[in-house]
Amino acid sequence: MVTRSTIMDTNSFRAEHAAGLDKDTMRLTERRGHLLGASYRLFYRRPVHLVRGRGQYLWDAEGTKYLDVYNNVASIGHCHPAVVEAVHEQMQLLNTHTRYLHEGILDYSESILATTPAEVNRAMYMCTGSEANDLAIRVARAYSGGTGIIVTQEAYHGTSDLTSGASPALGSGQPLAPTTRLVPAPDHYRLNDVDLGDWFAQEIKKQIDGMQADGIRFAGFLADSIFSSDGVLPGDAGFLKKAVDVVHRNGGIFIADEVQPGFARTGEAFWGFARHGVVPDIITTGKPMGNGIPVSGLLARGEVLAAFSDSIPYFNTFGGNPVSMAAAQAVLKVIHEEGLQEHSRVVGARLLAELRTLQDKYECVGDVRGAGLFIGFELVTDRNSKAPDKALALQLIEMLRDERVLTSVAGPYGNILKLRPPLAFQAADIDWLVGALDRGLARLGR
User: Pfam families from the entry (predicted)?
Assistant: First the structure.
């Protein structure tokens, strides 16, 4: 039996869609399949052939302009001139590994650690979020002496052997590690009659106790604080603290995966975890850190990292190279100089309010939630049952593509539109997005 993964296959092109393609798109998809193999996925039943980007906009090969409402890779905007210039200048001087002295990695480390709680005072660098989370799991195990890792039921933390074993969002074809345990996501939409903080802390404790019963020592809890893959679940600020307290009381560490909620995305704080008044033992980051240049990081409490770094040398050929550090430094500078955290808060709140007008208008819009420029738009068959409507979500995604709005879905049922534009997204773009959603829902008769 062929298994299909949630995160990769929900909004994807498949062979049965090929009949509706124009000749050029057909040629490219066939060439891609022949050269790249079967694991890769394309978005949409009619894949988009993109050739250029600027800010929050993208253009296809025919010159058609699109609004990007999904991309946190180019977090401060596609082809931001400050990043382009920084990379260009450094490429003309030097690019090499970290076994020589260079100011760039030190300057950036001081800059990024200035954004974290004082207790987080060490930095290491890689190229991808998967590598950062992989190393974080190794550090957690070295510090705690245990092996057990807890994640949420639809979590995605990477594609390495360690991280894919803790990424249930990759689907049933990807086995979880025997030391991984799952907790239900803190879905406040469906758990609105409970204290979410108490409930989530109890779920964490159940899995810690279950590990102990199975002879597995607990090492840590790895979570994206906005629970992106679980369906964008920000919850009330502060609810996560009780769960983190349980983790610490039971000898584990909290790893905050900030690849998606970090770097001013949530508006309320620079880091997603900061909404909850907690201090992680390890912070991991990736995509938005370099605005398209492959760079990632692990930021940690010195005493936690020492359990690993004092005995095990670590080397990553490209991690922390001068060009990547130049890109990362430029991103930080732009976030501060352009006031992107406050921009995300203000524009995100306005977008959320406009999207909630659609919730008032259409019964199928069950919930609209978010923090800053990170919003989940949940579609249901009816509001009483809150039953997920995946088919409607996928139809709507395709209609948005026709309206030149690019986004995708999230959650265990694939029924939640994940609205996560570059931070260059402006108030003037709200009408484009909300209007496209309105027209799509009206045409679907919902």
Answer: Aminotran_3 (PF00202)
